[in-house]
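== Fold encoding ==
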Amino acid sequence: MSQKLLVVDDEESIVTLISYNLGQSGYEVDTAMDGRTAIEKVKGTSYDLIILDLMLPETDGLEVCRQIRQEKIKVPILMLTAKDEEFDKVLGLELGADDYMTKPFSPRELVARVRAILRRLEYSPESSQDETDHVKMIIGHLTIFPDNYEVYVNDEQLELTPKEFELLLYLSNNKGRVMTRDQLLNAVWNYEFVGDTRIVDVHISHLREKIEPNTKKPVYIKTVRGLGYKFEEPAHS
């Protein structure tokens, strides 16, 4: 069964170009030309990924992203922006986008990025039905189910975006090791961001808000000044 994607852009030529190339790559593509239509479609249809332009009429891409996350819809969002400004990129990620691309881009680059995002989210339903269904990591009050992209704190499930989960999983798999921002960029985002290490800080901040009892005194994700971050098991669980 092909994966279903939603392309949201108010430029018909861009929508046509993206839809054609994704269709040629085997994806089922739905489209929306404005933010309000996109929100309605996302609420009524299950998508595997959303390609969302930042500059949309009436309801812009940032507001679309915000509303999707408020509805606790976890679909990955790849944001497109014609503005090569750090503020736009970081703000989009802060509101729940998982990745971004700056226009102009090549269709081949876009398809490769889509494949990379979807590949990182894949897991085998067949294998998770037997012994791996119970594979979990317990660290302090956190319980992580890697195969199901689920995290619990004291038996309460957390709402993490796919990228937040991947970052948490990578940190927990390297518990006790200091990880630089560049290492985290390369491992979790799977390609170079050329100095955009603020992206890591944004996601670390989001994770702390969700897993730490006190964000001002984190017990799981420690900042190692001048180096990066280290994930630790709390001294008193």
